[in-house]
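hey can u check if this looks right to u? its 389 residues, i copy pasted from the old doc so theres a chance i mangled smth
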Amino acid sequence: MGWFVAYTKPRAEFKAQDFYSKTGIVSYVPAFSEERQWSDRQKKVKRPAISGYVFIKLDKLTYNLINSNPFTRNIVKSEGVAVEIEDKEIDVVLILTSMNEHAQIAKEALIQQKHVLVEKPMATNMKDLNKLFAIAKKSKKILLAAPFVILSPTFQAIHQELIKGTIGKVSLARARYGWAGPNWGEWYYKTGGGPLFDLGVYNITTLTGLLGPVKKITAKSSISKPIRTINGEKIKVKTDDNFQILLEFKNKCLAVVTTGFTMQQYNSPAIELYGADGTIQMLGDDWEPKSYEIWDNKRSSWELYKTPYANWPWASGFTHLIDCIINKKKPLINLDHAYHVNEIMIKIYEASKKNKQIDIQSTFKDLTFNKKIKIKKSHLDHDRNHDDI
């Protein structure tokens, strides 16, 4: 089985991928998201990283398969022969498919002795999660799970503040991340999709990274918009798109996470941490933090710290993985932590459905960072064009 590359029609990369996904064919389009500003609104837009192509995994190439897709034109060829990328030529597998496919592809890649970067979530059910986790633990290859928020220098700076005890023992926390929802990719609104796996995962990763393991969860979720328009067609939403979540940490801190494809705009901190001696707030989104601020009871004032490294790329997990492979380093992103976050998300659905509190079984060791993050007070932060990441 190898990978083939097909040309797509103009601006039809995701439509081509969706068509293959509906027919059970493994395919993907490398993609990224960016904020676009219109005169009346701001919107997060998904864009192909390589315009005009879709990648397809097949046992054998059949041209009927290419021709049956109304959004593809032809297969990529060299000297008249279809180009096949053989498995033995691949060192790292990036899994950017729809969510329900992540676990199976990751398992296959690890079994084939490939390093793996998997988009969130690793799995959409506990059975698949446990199988993948067991294989990854035995493998000599790296399984790196998104999201990569703990690599953010702003996250690490806040982590340092908590270690120093700047705001004392944290008792309460809040986090939020959401938007109106994508108008592409029908799978976002099917079972195994939804804003929890797509967006809430950032907040849960950040909070657990800062505050440690979760002990119990309570949650409420709903379908707020039963019909959505995706790629110009109306579809029925089959998974919850609206969440309020309560996390009880082992250190007795309580945290609330708000996420959904139901949030048009906001202008509030991404993360709020309330301690006995002060407050820390992360401004912006935790996947793209702008700065953070601290309230100190002793000073009786707020102090703003601009993002220490303003140009930190939110997709830096890939370069971190390559650095770890080349230099034989252990990734900062902890697999036990990623498993813990994934278990929490799966059990949030259970908690909401059963209307009961659910115990979390997994745990992980406190995160540690060897590099000390240099921070600047906002009035000293004049030029951030040459950040040393």
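The first strand starts at residue 2 and ends at 8.
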